[in-house]
């Protein structure tokens, strides 16, 4: 029996079999990623047929962009608050940082995201106003105030090019140990995140003009 096995599994054949298995590994991962993304289905039950179809298209495009799922950006449905919420009677810098952190989720890539608030001009403005209230009430130091103001200034101008680094900095302020970004979301990933969580009424937040026009119309 042992002699027969040696005849079947010759060194040459073993090398060929091993090479084939190595070549099949990336094929397996690519196939699994496509299956995983396309089997997610439409997570937002409120979407009409047009946007439900768009979700499927985006899932396919994202699978093509990251076939090995190296980034693994989470675009899944999570707990959503449409508007920022602040306690002005007892202002807290932690409350502001938590809200800002949730606003970054549509703009960044991370393997896990818990909660989300849409990055709307109004939410940005309310956050900026609350930041100034914190300063007035001596609830925040000059250094942190300046850093958070810089972030909000970027966002109010439609500049999200540093959102991944800003999100990680916000998590640092919160003394978090996980949930850190691995880069910026692609346009397809952000659109899918918006449709899954906020719905099509918030697709305008993809457009830089949404923020610049709001800034120009503000008093």
Task: Please describe what this structure looks like.
By secondary structure, the chain is mainly α. The chain is built from nine helices and no strands. Helix 2 (11-38) packs antiparallel against helix 3 (49-65). It starts with a helix and ends with a helix.
Measured distance between first and last alpha carbons: 89 Å
- Strand % is under 5%
Shape: globular
Helix content: 55-70%
How many DSSP E strands? 0
Structure at a glance:
The chain is mainly α and 219 residues long. 58% of the residues lie in helices and 0% in strands.
What's the helix and strand layout?
Blueprint: H1 2-8, H2 11-38, H3 49-65, H4 93-104, H5 121-136, H6 142-156, H7 163-173, H8 187-197, H9 208-217
Helix pairs in contact: 2-3, 3-8, 4-5, 4-7, 5-6
Provide the descriptors you would attach to this structure in a database record.
219 residues; mainly alpha; 9 helices; 0% strand
